[in-house]
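Side project, low priority. Logging it here so it doesn't get lost.
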Amino acid sequence: MSVRERFEHDIKSVQQDLLELCQKSIESLDLSFQAFVKKDIELALEIIDMDAEINRLEEAINDRVILLIAKQQPVATDLRRLMVIIKASADMERVGDYAVNIAKETIRIGQEPFITSIETLEDMCSQTTTMLRQIVEAFMNEDIAKAKEIAEFDDRVDELYGETVGNLLRLTSVKIESIPQITYLSFIARYIERCADHATNIAEHLFYLVKGQHYELNN
């Protein structure tokens, strides 16, 4: 195997590590929201424990990329690819962090009945997990057409977030005794909205990788 072939093999291996990180982070978000809906405290605690593996994967990706840059001194295109991998792994690690945050809010709510419908939150999470899965597929295939669709999903999530927060703010004046839960639900909505933003970030990273220019998709 030539030096170039070895380098390409190593990049593909790091990309596989990134794919594993993405899958674990999306699974963590999905399970965390399930725990919230079902008020499953045990599952919420498991999500918190899962975060250590996600963090380990991100650190391993960073270490491998730094080593490749130091040893191979890659040309511009390869360097761009490696830097984009680091950025995408950071975004997906943050998704894992937000899953943990949702799990913690779930524990705080406990078995207390929801004071309002969580339908918009369910829609938000469904849209967001769809975004994340789509951008991972687009990223691995370098499909910028599919990545461009992410901005439309993000607009919908933002609309749902505004609707959710507006409803919760109205409740603060009529259900003063429920302000703690209103706060927890507001945080959960925010965490989901931030996960969607990270999907958009990855779409922008992909445009930079393929086009060599920075694009802002959520403006």
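Brief comment: Residues 3-38 form the longest helix (36 residues).
Revisit when time allows.
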